[in-house]
Amino acid sequence: MFGGLSGRIQKDRLKAEGLGSVQQAVQYLNQDYQAVKEDCLQNGTLFEDPMFPAEPSSLGFKELGPFTAKTRGVEWKRPTDGHLSGSAGRLLAARCYRLSDSKRSSAAPRCSSRSELQPGVRGIFHFQFWQFGEWVDVVIDDRLPTKDGELMFVHSAEGSEFWSALLEKAYAKLNGSYEALSGGSTTEGFEDFTGGVAEMYELKKAPRDLHRIISKALERGSLLGCSIDITSALDMEAVTFKKLVKGHAYSVTGLRQVDYRGRQERLIRIRNPWGQVEWTGAWSDNSSEWSSIDSAEKDEMMCKMEDGEFWMSFQEFLRQFSRLEICNLTPDALSQDTSFWTTTTYQGSWRRGSTAGGCRNHPNTFWINPQYKISLLEEDDDPEDDEAACSFLVALMQKDRRRFRRHGQDVHTIGFAVYEIPEEYRGCPSVHLKKDFFLRHSSCARSETFINLREVSARLRLPPGEYLIVPSTFEPSKEADFVLRVFTEKQSETEEMDDEVVANFEEEDDVSESDVDDSFRSMFAQLSGDDMEISVRELRTILNRVVSKHRDLQTDGFSMESCRAMVGLMDKDGSARLGLLEFQVLWNKIRKWLGIFRDFDLDKSGCMSSYEMRLALENGGFKLNNKLYQMLVARYADNEIIDFDNFTCCLVKLEAMS
Question: Final residue of a domain: which of 316, 333, 350?
Fold first, then answer.
């Protein structure tokens, strides 16, 4: 739909007009729900989705691939075909039930009404998901995979409801197959279903301000989940001595401080989405602790409880549970006014040889990664200590990696580092900081670790000022597209730090006949022949003879195409040939470029790496942004290596364009 440059320009224009918002979701695979539905109604047919057919390829590629034991005997049935049942898949079920706990989120995947399960509605549904910065509308038919009369994957607790199975099918379609949904974390579903940003805390090493973080998250309508780690498959759903379930997805729904026996006690409210099994320790529904607090306060706290909901002390929570996940919702995911993070989203990419520099362990290439500036302007209202600081959250997400599982690829190991921008660069809108800066400066903050998850996030607090965020893969040359989101509590400004495209040419003296020395004139006469002009073919012969004598240069020789470009650059009279003065100017340029090439061939290998080339081009007068540089590397580099003839051709092309 949006192929090529004109397509990208059109998409940018439509995004500026609201495309990709909750109200105007992007049509996934160009399928328009209303149009498809009308077509089915007019033709009297049930919808069969050609984009995600009821075939083995939609199930998976490995364990769920065609002809495997798990997919043998699979039948695709519609809810209207008869009673279906099955065992709930835990991962998606946890995502769905946690979403249902949110009182304020309006952005959980949207589907057609329950009545549309009745015959005559043509078996078509649609759901909205957040995907890498935009909302996407996914159309599906209602043919669901079954085995022995049971749904293979997720089902609702109510046997007659199929919304969760239909939701799962839409999510599988979005990710390429059902098998692509396996693995990953609950936070992925949080984000894809709400458009929020997730963060995770190991409670054994919880930050000292976790109580404050949870309190603010609840105020903002964030989704909070917690769980107890399992040590083996036998542990799954095992019940502890005080009735907590291991490996189970709980929700955090409230926080309270009460006056208990002359001191302040922090309590946290937890909900088991399945109801029934509840905590039996201190502050549970019938525990003795409640008799020691004000009865009116007790009644208020108890009357707001739902089935499966219970209180426990905050310290007990930290001891009993292993992990807390928070999904911070963005403004478009909230159905009522509340305080929320200010958000900025950037779409970026790591490309081999141009912007995939790897982590700080690789100082020669780290600087070529994309760079983003954040200006923290306002400190928090409630700082933890006397130091003024600004809270913000950085989330780095790699795109579409589940889709590549089918081809044997998976998520890369990713992370980010944050640097304070020094005085001399403050206020500069377009400066891509180079290698020397990172050799001299250490990061002031970073992601806790580089990890092979879809997203890495970190909550940070830094003094007001200007900072540089550098997202990267752990190893250089790993290619991927990514989304970088920055969430700030207070006013801030963010922008991509990229060089402006600039061409600075040194003043070139006009060359006259008298400037040409006799030896050059003699050489030209010898090379040009009787017509005293050099053709494209003759120029190629000359240049290849010259570079072959420079044994320190690696080169495959100049092509006819590159020589034609040189003649085009220097040819002033339109003859498609070079006269004496034109050849003299070109010769001077080539000698200058040869000097630059040798200076930036740092290891004296006779060729340059693609990141050395970026510095060499800048020395030659050309500052380029990331996108333009990516295009040049794709065109002129071979396996991230540039030889002298390609370097020369690149400079000729840049000079001609400029």
Answer: 333
